[in-house]
Amino acid sequence: MTVEAQQPPAEAGASRPGSVRRAVTVLGAVASVMVAADFATKEIALATLNYRDDVTVIPGVLYWSLIRNSGAAFSLGEDYTWIFPIVAILVAGWIGWMARSLRSIPWAISLGLVLGGAVGNLIDRVFREPSPFQGHVVDFVSVFQPGGGAFPIFNWADSSLSIGVVLAVLLELTGRQRDGSRISSDGGKKPAPGSSDEKDSTSA
């Protein structure tokens, strides 16, 4: 009589590492695309625009207005240039730490947008004039009126960062957690899709 070797039970949450890799891959891909697009659009702006003339794209809506910004996103804090590279590095480190338990694709997209925006402007801070870590960011998108005004001039990285933050707020408001679970209306926490906790709850 032969006794079949009993397979050890799968560890709780064994399906989760794969989802972590998938989410981190999405985060990295989104951030990489945003950084590449930001760098490319800034180089095109520097090659085709000048600092004196505004280009009308859609009258009353969209203009190209090239400036060099020593401040943060949307020209804020222009007298504290040296602080922003430190903030960008801290943001990148925080996102890297968060990615260890990241399983939500929407959160991966949100954090990827924030990371891409932060790194895009960090590259300007580090490598552009007038000096390393005090470089001025290239901004060129103006809305509603040429040359800024009521709404500051911005760039691709600023847009990426802003959209990522707005998406993160929406995810928080709808109860979506970074581990893929979701807070229900009664305050309970629904298990992450594909996890062993979800399988147990559905089979009960």
UniProtKB/TrEMBL annotation:
<keyword id="KW-0812">Transmembrane</keyword>
<comment type="similarity">
    <text>Belongs to the peptidase A8 family.</text>
</comment>
<comment type="function">
    <text>This protein specifically catalyzes the removal of signal peptides from prolipoproteins.</text>
</comment>
<feature type="transmembrane region" description="Helical">
    <location>
        <begin position="153"/>
        <end position="173"/>
    </location>
</feature>
<feature type="region of interest" description="Disordered">
    <location>
        <begin position="178"/>
        <end position="204"/>
    </location>
</feature>
<keyword id="KW-1133">Transmembrane helix</keyword>
<dbReference type="InterPro" id="IPR001872">
    <property type="entry name" value="Peptidase_A8"/>
</dbReference>
<dbReference type="Pfam" id="PF01252">
    <property type="entry name" value="Peptidase_A8"/>
</dbReference>
<feature type="transmembrane region" description="Helical">
    <location>
        <begin position="80"/>
        <end position="98"/>
    </location>
</feature>
<dbReference type="GO" id="GO:0005886">
    <property type="term" value="C:plasma membrane"/>
</dbReference>
<comment type="pathway">
    <text>Protein modification; lipoprotein biosynthesis (signal peptide cleavage).</text>
</comment>
<feature type="transmembrane region" description="Helical">
    <location>
        <begin position="105"/>
        <end position="123"/>
    </location>
</feature>
<feature type="active site">
    <location>
        <position position="158"/>
    </location>
</feature>
<feature type="active site">
    <location>
        <position position="139"/>
    </location>
</feature>
<keyword id="KW-1003">Cell membrane</keyword>
<keyword id="KW-0064">Aspartyl protease</keyword>
<dbReference type="GO" id="GO:0004190">
    <property type="term" value="F:aspartic-type endopeptidase activity"/>
</dbReference>
<keyword id="KW-0645">Protease</keyword>
<protein>
    <recommendedName>
        <fullName>Lipoprotein signal peptidase</fullName>
        <ecNumber>3.4.23.36</ecNumber>
    </recommendedName>
</protein>
<keyword id="KW-0378">Hydrolase</keyword>
<dbReference type="GO" id="GO:0006508">
    <property type="term" value="P:proteolysis"/>
</dbReference>
<keyword id="KW-0472">Membrane</keyword>
